[in-house]
TrEMBL record:
N-acetyltransferase domain span: 27-179
PROSITE patterns hit by this protein: GNAT
Name the UniProt record assigns to this protein: GNAT family N-acetyltransferase
One Pfam family from the record: Acetyltransf_1
Low complexity bias locations: 179-194
Species of provenance: Kibdelosporangium philippinense
Signal sequence annotation: none
Residues covered by region (Disordered): 164-194
InterPro entries cross-referenced by the UniProt entry: Acyl_CoA_acyltransferase, GNAT_dom
Gene3D superfamilies documented for this protein: 3.40.630.30
């Protein structure tokens, strides 16, 4: 499927435009213990709606090699003890790439995306010597993704049409049958309506 790919960057931490804090308690924690099982869960839970399939065929050792690559970091957003989203940062020679970023579907629409990106960008800039933080997205991603990146102060530096994710021409991926449906109300909103 042909899609438009956008490359975005920040070249100074002063470019960060923080999002407002969400109304719920969110903790961003670095996953310092490499766990192929956990990262594969995050990858499928966050990426299945957006046709992330590149790593689905990886075996355990390929995941472990990726997670222990020098400069690799996994940051996980936790809400009430539940993983709500994550980002993978890859540091190389002053550049930090946000390799994967997103929310678990049941947490989309709860005001977490901008806050998570704000905190991930802060972590990316924390290491002395960082000169650029960048990522890429495309038109197969969430309709809010590009807006969120730009609202946090990232600027587009390259645009290209690209054949993206051949699996996007087929059936949508699901981590399990029926997973990609509307999220139920959060426990907090259910309690408020009682």
């Amino acid at each position: 499927m042909l899609a438009t790919r956008y490359y975005l960057q920040q070249t100074s931490p002063d470019q960060l435009k923080p999002a407002k804090k969400p109304d719920i308690d969110v903790q961003l924690v670095r996953s310092a213990e490499p766990s192929p099982e956990f990262n594969r869960y995050l990858y499928t839970a966050v990426g299945s709606d957006w046709y992330w399939a590149f790593r689905l065929g990886w075996d355990w050792q390929q995941w472990m090699d990726w997670l222990t690559e020098p400069g690799h970091e996994t940051w996980v957003a936790w809400v009430r003890g539940t993983p709500a989203g994550y980002a993978e940062l890859v540091r190389r020679d002053g550049d930090v790439e946000i390799e994967n970023f997103g929310l678990v579907p049941s947490f989309i629409g709860r005001g977490l995306g901008g806050h998570l990106l704000t905190e991930v960008l802060r972590r990316a800039w924390e290491v002395p010597g960082t000169t650029r933080v960048w990522l890429h997205t495309n038109t197969l991603d969430s309709t809010q993704a590009l807006h969120n990146y730009q609202a946090r102060g990232m600027t587009v530096f390259q645009v290209e049409d690209n054949v993206e994710k051949p699996q996007a021409d087929g059936a949508k991926l699901e981590p399990w049958p029926g997973a990609n449906r509307a999220a139920p109300p959060s426990p907090v909103s259910r309690a408020a309506s009682d």
